[in-house]
Amino acid sequence: MNMPRFFMLLCVSVVLIITLNLIQDPSSPWTPVGTGVDYQEFVLAGPVHAYVARMDRTNPNVILESTLAQGKLGGGYETVSDMAERYDQAINFWNSPLAARNNVVIAINGSFVEPDTGAPQSGQIQSGWYVKRFNDYGGGSGFAWKMDRSAFIGECVYHRPEKQLVTVLATGETIPITGINIPRKDNQLIVYTPQYDSDTNTDTSGVEILVEMAKPSQVIPLPRSTEGVVREIRDGLGSTPIPFDSIVLSAAASTREDLLSIVHIGDRIGISQEITSMERDCNTPSVNSWTKTYTSISGSFFFLKNGEIQSYTDDKGATDRHPRTAIA
């Protein structure tokens, strides 16, 4: 299935955790712009200008991060430079919660927006938070940077409903998660993360439970989970504010009753999420694991895979003349 391609929304940033002195080798065409990060401009026939940044993945002082226009889902449009400025000095969750601030040294174009919602095309993971699910059986997912500093480009994915759960840890009682950061409907349980907006933008017909998290609600499959503590239960109250270290569980109709019957203030709960990874045919299992992915944005197509140029001549999103951004 061909994915729609619209205007840029996201960018991928190269973030320094610690800034050190830089020394340039006068014989090298690469210019150091941060610890373990270099830059070079290439001019090719056409003319084509290629602006290339490279990062030493083994350097513990540099990471990758994704951003959101205007700092929230559905924020719409913002220049890459403004997004980089917005997230510079912002708190990140690399390795230890609230331990470091961003020092953005490189930012590149990323994914696209859906024009009707202003939200990212397909999915996104930011600073460990799974903020928007990738499309099931879409044929492609996105680039992933993991907590162990490994990276991969995912293809087809699927979210098995029985693997997306909220668990009350003391009792083992569970309730399935219907979606993440989407408008709530009856008989659904939606998880809202800080990236959604300043509040949940919901009406008063349901219940909303504020959970203070020990760390971001990552892709962590059963039987493990990311854990938090229930701080507030707001029954019949909508538009719950979302603190930067918390999630909101929002349910309506029969799911509201189910949630109220098992969750109480002070309970410790677990959030378990799993992404089933497949090859592009959406049938063959893939070796790629999304567990503990730190940041990810969606991509449009492969043009090079295992050293071989991929066929994309029938894809106007690839063949029409536009500025292009690639990551490898």
Kindly describe this structure.
Helix content is about 5%, strand content about 35%. The strands form seven sheets. It has an eight-stranded mixed β-sheet with strand order 15-14-21-19-18-20-17-16, with helices on one face. By secondary structure, the chain is mainly beta. The chain has two domains: about 10-20 and about 30-160 and about 275-320, no CATH class; about 160-270, no CATH class. The chain is globular.
List keywords for this structure.
mainly beta; disordered N terminus; 3 helices; five-stranded antiparallel beta sheet; eight-stranded mixed beta sheet; 25 strands; globular; 328 residues; 2 domains
Summarize the structure.
The chain has 328 residues and is mostly beta strands.
- Average pLDDT score: 88
How many individual domains?
A: 2
Biggest sheet overview: 8 strands, mixed
Order of helices and strands: EEEEEHEEEEEEEEEEEEEEEHEEEEEH
Query: Gap between N and C termini, in Å?
Result: 23 Å
Count of strand segments:
25
Structural class by sheet pairing and helices: mainly beta
Net shape: globular
Q: What's the gyration radius in Å?
A: 21 Å
Low-confidence stretches: 1-10
DSSP helical segment count: 3
Helix content: under 10%
Oligomer: single chain
Q: Tell me the strand percentage band.
A: 25-35%
Strand order of the largest sheet: 15-14-21-19-18-20-17-16
